[in-house]
Amino acid sequence: MGSDQSLPDRIRKIIGDSSARSFAQKAGVNDGTLRSILSGSKPTMDNLVALARAGGVSIDWLATGEEQAVQAGPVHVEQAGEVGEGFVMVPRYDVEASAGHGSFNGAENIVDYMAFREEWVRRTLRVDPSKLVLITAVGDSMEPMIRAGDLLLIDTGVERIIDDAVYILVKRGDLVVKRVQQFFNGAVAVKSDNDEYEDETLTPEDAKEIKVAGRVRWVGRLI
Q1: Peptide bond just before 129 cis, omega within 30 deg
Q2: Single pTM value for the model
Q3: Angle, helix 20-27 to helix 7-15, in steps of 10 degrees
Q4: Where are the domains of the chain?
Q5: Cα separation of 208 and 137, whole Å?
Q6: What is the CATH topology of the domain spanning 7-64?
Q7: Which residues have a Cβ under 8 Å from the Cβ of 143 and sit 6 or more positions away?
Q8: Residues facing 171 on adjacent strands
Q9: Predicted confidence (pLDDT) per residue in 107-158, tens digit
Q10: At what angle do helices 31-38 and 7-15 cross, to 10 degrees?
Q11: What top-level class would CATH report for the domain 86-220?
């Protein structure tokens, strides 16, 4: 059953007694962006995921108000095929983003699998399940949104910059996770969420050399 509440109403509900500014910091979302969403602006998927995670609610509930929202809730298994219908198996690779060499194309690099609800993958993420992989984040350049040790669910079907979002880029043979913004003239801004790291703006010519390995669609961590 749906809710009569609007998205801003649901966000205010999970903010509770906290200030919008402190909740934005907790979610890793710009304070001005959160205030804009609360005023009725449509959030990006990345911001919606961050707000839902910070509020401890499902993305579906936050986006639609549905009471029976589908949870991401991955299930760890050692081999593909160990769970029943309704789940998709996503391989976790022995690859780190932000340090170390690696790729997603070698079966020998698969550590294990995690099962995600297929309905959540198709309805909420709207991606091809066969294109999903899991890798581990290292470093602190994307804190507070992404921390060292976090699991990153990557849509490898994304091979070019199509939105202002968080991507896995290949840089001199290394995988790095960065927020990327593309301008109308073809230039690209490569950003870190951590203010201690400087942003980098690439010319249209240099931007053509960027190789996109995928887009980050979900972040998971132990608390």
Answers
A1: no
A2: 0.64
A3: 90
A4: 7-64, 86-220
A5: 25
A6: 434 Repressor (Amino-terminal Domain) (1.10.260)
A7: 28, 193, 194
A8: 174
A9: 547 888 888 888 888 888 889 999 999 999 988 899 888 888 888 999 999 9
A10: 130
A11: mainly beta
